[in-house]
Backbone:
């Protein structure tokens, strides 16, 4: 039996538009982001996909994207699970910083190390920062283990238990699963699914608002490596734009 997994990165957020490192900071979608989310749902409906259960992060931009996409697909009624393990990577002390300014200040190598290396986290974010989530009630259960910065490896390690215990369980039950999450939490999941090396994952970028569909075999291995974007031409352009963020 094959399994259908739909990955959807949230639509353009207010801080994507402003070119700021976002991480766990909770921002809303722009009008463009809302339109991308609805179009993502239309693409699903046109291709005949019917999500039966939704998993999202605890961040508004993913939640609103899922709501808009499911509404457009006529599937607003499906059960929902939300978990911090699907959150964007905590961007540490870079949260709230301008990407172009950070590139200019620290140079290409350090900038890319922080953005795309597998195992180098940015400096930790101080709990007293206006960009900290340390007193946010939605993470209260994490206590002192709540992250103050994360590299992609950290994201993979905290996301995998959720994949194993929650998402795979729904897929095993024969459900079409939609996961609405973030650039880096989805990069971590795709790295795991496609077996991408620690080096090569630096070159993988995920566009906003375009569904990426994986058909998985009995062993949860992708039948088509890399999955299938429902609008491949738009995805290719948007992937380039994400890769080039921070550059004029
Ligand atoms: O700022 C962020 O949280 C992420 C996603 O928007 O950015 P980047 O693509 O630079 O990892």
Residues:
């Amino acid at each position: 039996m094959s399994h259908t997994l739909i990955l959807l990165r949230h639509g353009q957020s207010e801080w994507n538009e402003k070119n700021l490192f976002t991480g766990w900071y909770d921002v809303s979608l722009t009008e463009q982001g809302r339109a991308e989310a609805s179009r993502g749902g239309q693409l699903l409906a046109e291709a005949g996909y019917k999500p039966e259960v939704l998993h999202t992060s605890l961040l508004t931009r993913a939640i609103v994207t899922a709501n808009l996409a499911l509404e457009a697909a006529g599937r607003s009624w499906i059960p929902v699970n939300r978990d911090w393990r699907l959150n964007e990577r905590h961007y540490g002390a870079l949260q709230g910083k301008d990407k172009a300014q950070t590139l200019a200040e620290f140079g290409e190598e350090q900038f890319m190390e922080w953005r795309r290396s597998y195992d180098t986290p940015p400096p930790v974010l101080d709990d007293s920062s206006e960009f900290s989530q340390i007193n946010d009630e939605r993470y209260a259960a994490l206590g002192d283990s709540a992250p103050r910065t994360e590299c992609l490896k950290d994201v993979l390690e905290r996301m995998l238990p959720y994949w194993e215990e929650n998402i795979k369980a729904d897929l095993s039950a024969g459900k079409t699963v939609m996961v609405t999450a973030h650039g880096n939490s989805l990069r971590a999941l795709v790295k795991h699914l496609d077996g991408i090396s620690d080096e090569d994952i630096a070159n993988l970028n995920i566009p906003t608002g375009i569904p990426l569909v994986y058909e998985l075999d009995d062993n949860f291995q992708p039948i088509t490596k890399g999955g299938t974007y429902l609008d491949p031409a738009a995805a290719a352009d948007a992937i380039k734009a994400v890769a080039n963020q921070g550059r004029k």
Summary: The helical segments are 14-18, 31-46, 60-72, 99-116, 152-172, 183-194, 232-243. The first helix runs from residue 14 to 18.
